[in-house]
């Protein structure tokens, strides 16, 4: 069918009008100026918050390690000063350290974070005006997820694992929201560059005006180049992997120790129950039992002298000694405790309860030396604690005879 010239003209005019009115138009990037500015502010603010959170997590990790070292030192001091009050060992508070980092070192960067969040809130109404409802909702989801990343920094009442897990969870939520927005809107590189030139001076002014008492609160984190940040993040991930392996080894050592402890307790209960059937105390008068205990104690004191000497040497090098110094001390303690346990009379107290407690205590000390000699430090600490508990039990059993283990 042929169309007249008038019909063709009418169709052309209809097409032009349809295009002008948007008939059949596909979704496209918004043409407003505030939308790419908000996108850039959100993107850069989340990246800054993630970098601050990484540094905060490192501070928290370091403080928790320092707290553990202080507690180990306090534990060791009880052996060095058994008859007097041990010296106080200062202990770091990880949450106080993290709060101080936030209030001082990261103050300038957090001031920039707060200023960027303020700018984003002020521009969001324009984003809603410039875009479709679908794009506006995607921007709102991106803002919320970015806020969660930034708010996590100021939540200080968490352990290292909980803090890092929370940060990673919030960052993943942000990446998901960003991917959903990318399907609807992506700004041009020139628009991002223009937005940074426009707003970077405002963020720099916020950093300069931030109150801080720390000499290093200069916003260095925010000044990392992309290459520096990628390198720092790679190093941080390697540290996280190493710490995860250490934690797994530590938990395995704790589980092995607990399994052995439960087995030893069951054996001790069984031996103690059977020993009461032939308790020598039932056939001895109190005076005779006292004399028998004193005679045994003289032998015991002479036989444990090498163990006491070796234990003192081990404790003196355990905290600050080198591996070359610690290993000989561990071996000396292992030799001394093994010889003591091989002596059938040294720990054979006429009082069965004292005998059982002493044998358990020095068996734990031998296990401590064995773990130390193979560089299993976590197990050595637990065995040392078990030795201390055994000595306390022996002291309670020997108290009626006015002697000490």
Share of helical residues: over 70%
Q: How many β-strand runs?
A: 0
Q: What fraction of the residues are assigned to beta strands by DSSP?
A: under 5%
What is the number of helices?
12
The gross shape turns out to be: rod-shaped
Largest sheet: none
Describe the structure.
With 405 residues, this protein is mostly helical. Helix content is 77%, strand content 0%. The protein contains twelve helices and no strands. α2 (34-80) packs parallel to α5 and α8 (226-275) packs antiparallel against α11. The protein is rod-shaped.
Give the SSE layout.
Blueprint (H helix, E strand, L loop, with lengths): L4 H17 L12 H47 L13 H12 L1 H24 L2 H21 L6 H23 L6 H20 L17 H50 L10 H33 L4 H20 L9 H22 L3 H22 L7
Helix pairs in contact: 2-3, 2-4, 2-5, 2-6, 2-7, 4-5, 4-7, 5-6, 8-11, 8-12, 9-10, 10-11, 11-12
What key phrases describe this protein's structure?
405 residues, mainly alpha, 0% strand, disordered N terminus
Concise overview:
This protein has 405 residues and is mainly alpha-helical. The protein has helices spanning 5-21, 34-80, 94-105, 107-130, 133-153, 160-182, 189-208, 226-275, 286-318, 323-342, 352-373, 377-398.
